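Researcher: First entry.
Model:
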Amino acid sequence: MGAQLTFSTDSREDGVVLLVASGEIDLSNVDAFGGALADATRNGTAIVDLRGVEYLDSGGIHALFTYADKIRIRTGPLLMPVLTVSGLAELVDVEQ
């Protein structure tokens, strides 16, 4: 069994929501991740911090694509190739 997905949100002073995820995003929890993205982007732009994510499957990528026009992504070197190959890095501002 992989690392369980956990996430937290925080609102910044500028109104942007910060969604921090850690663990693995896969078929078992992609619905919860999608719900967290929906909540975070409800009133505008959100920063999605994936630096603590160890695994991101196609369902997680699809969830990110769904909100591509409302998110910015923070990631580490582990997920950067996935974001690049999927084309998401061309649509979303990605900070490494």
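Researcher: Second entry.
Model:
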Amino acid sequence: MTVRIGQRLPSVELGRIVGEQLKPVDLDGVLRGRHVVLVGLPGAFTPVCSGRHLPELIGHASTLRASGIDEIVCVAPNSPWVVHEWAQRLDPEGQLTFLSDGNLDLARNSGLVVTERSLFLGQCSKRFTMLLKNAVIEKMAVEDTINALTCTRPSTFL
């Protein structure tokens, strides 16, 4: 069952590379007491994510922060090392926070897993955007396919 507006996002552990070290990240700790935009991306270095979605998010980051957003968190189903390298290449100034859902705990517990065998991705996260206040979903959009970028764009979602 997919999470819905008004529900608390499931508490899961995600991964992040800090310096050279793998660090577990308690997602609830990131969200607690904060206003956060959480973006689920199907895969690091994929064409829509790297070529369109992330550049738009980075371009809107200052506007989002000015509107009261504390943090913009991007979650991808790749290993923490791949997500870290991706973040370094696409967002060297660190306007967004990148976390790994390599075990798909967030995607599975939220009902946002999709299998994309034809793209050789196997199971991955659906493309989604959530506006969360204190870990409760205030607004949510999920694309029909992982290659779509319509309702999850910052300009249309927020």
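Model: Note on the second entry: Helices lie at 27-31, 47-66, 80-90, 105-110, 154-157.
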